[in-house]
């Protein structure tokens, strides 16, 4: 047996069990070894029946008698009397009739581990596991690991298989460099895995967890260190800073740049002068004005003879950016074009020609820009909106489009607490735009209960009478994206046929065709629609300054950061804006929701979210899933700092990663990770 042995080859695993394991994503011995318990239950202390109290208990007793009855259709109840010499108690099992055969010998001693609780008018041991007292115990009399129950997979089965694999675990070679294990005083890999699956004391679990979490963070941080190093060794274009070009651009803006915008612009212009390609993230709360900073960088790059590509995650956002950038840059004779999935083939060809010849200076689009057919004359700058990270693959694709590595500028409105920044984008340089433009009034946020729905609608209607516009964001009926359309359409019709019959309503959801979405957004932007009923597709970056009301249905279902992002769709002009958080029931609103009501600071809300719900929740499952941290918590700042230190030391020591097979495979996976949104 080795790590790649199929689980189907293990003793006692028939085809049915193998199928079930496979359904849970467990194919090989290695999969199972790394299938870690989510918690442990302490059944390690044997108590006397005479002393027993309610709770998770283990006794060592003989079975005096056992009977099974059919109580109701489909339910078999097996009852046994257990005696350990100090007293007797009753054990009961539901639909486990096989216990009668297992426990039939009254002279045999067993361990029983289960919940001692008050059930059906008396105290009983409910559904205990039972094992012969002689030999090794797997499901009783120890710190029992409880495994994630995927597709009905039972912990009992996992424990049994792991006990077969145990000898292999004890012999596993270490995966971390010895210096790292030593200087951090970590337990070895095999001790850590044994500590998770077969702990003999709670302390072993703690040490095991620490070791495995450290390893994950070390891999992640090593990957960003190596990405950073790889980036430093690339040759890029040095784009000289021309102060007259920049000054003219800034002077022509209808507003003054905020100090944060100026600083970010300065950081970027300096980065672009270097031959090492820029790798910078501009982080700024919604409405902080990141687009104009990107436009300034583009202005400089084009003026020096380079082309610029701007990538946005959705078509709506891309086309909006195309318009904004076009308005800002056309006066300088800059040719701004647009490319996305919806652009028809016959328009596509001439566009690709223009890019290749250099006639098109700036191209704005979606991921379509990464397609091989897209070729540039001289690509100098790539701006990526609402994305945090590029992997080596994405970088490679860009390199193929340019003789040298273009400068990269990423922009995000997702505020990431400082403790997280290191892990989530350790390889990027970061500029933060903290202040919002001065002419903005803070958005007034208010929680509403559904009993006041009528009054809420009247409030919104009054705002529309003043010439403003509103968003109504509704949740999916369930998690099935196929029902997305159904749920917004239902709300749209309801509003149209009742309170807002006299207003112009629009509909927007992810299932609409790109050109339909486009049309809806355009109509809203041109004020041909008063109220836009939508799903969270309006979340990222949409800019309609005349919209001053954001109504969010079932607000408690969202993370704080997401609510804050949605709220950021309004408050984009000098008009007073409002965000209404409608709860789904009349219960007192949660403290969490109150925080959104109280604070307009996205960074603060992200911190609160991190504390209350953990990083996975904030940045969405996909993101956390991509990081695929099983054990480490991104909130564990001490361990992150330690892992960072070791990763730095490892890289600067010039050690060869290749000699650590598993480490290098995992690091490689993290290095290839592309987006974390
Ligand atoms: P975000 O950072 O969320 O992407 P945008 O770039 O969409 O924000 O900018 C939001 C709005 O603020 C735009 O209408 C933009 O023209 C305007 N804006 C940007 N900078 C300033 C500023 N310094 N003063 C006033 N308005 C500004
Ligand atoms: Mg934006």
Brief summary:
The protein has 677 residues and is α/β, with parallel strands linked by helices. Among the domains are: 1-40 and 148-171, DNA polymerase, domain 1; 45-141, OB fold (Dihydrolipoamide Acetyltransferase, E2P), CATH 2.40.50; 243-273 and 289-412, Rossmann fold; 444-599, P-loop containing nucleotide triphosphate hydrolases (Rossmann fold, 3-Layer(aba) Sandwich), CATH 3.40.50.
Say which CATH homologous superfamily of the domain at 444-599 is assigned.
P-loop containing nucleotide triphosphate hydrolases
Across the major sheet, the strand order is 10-11-9-12-13-8-14
Please report the number of helical segments. Answer: 24
CATH architecture type of the domain at 444-599: 3-Layer(aba) Sandwich
Low-confidence spans: 617-626
Structural class: alpha/beta
Q: What's the end-to-end separation, in Å? A: 40 Å
Portion in beta strands: 15-25%
- Bound ions, cofactors and other small molecules, one mention each: adenosine-5'-diphosphate, magnesium ion
Helix content: 25-40%
Work out the radius of gyration.
Answer: 31 Å
Biggest sheet overview: 7 strands, parallel
Mean model confidence by pLDDT? 88
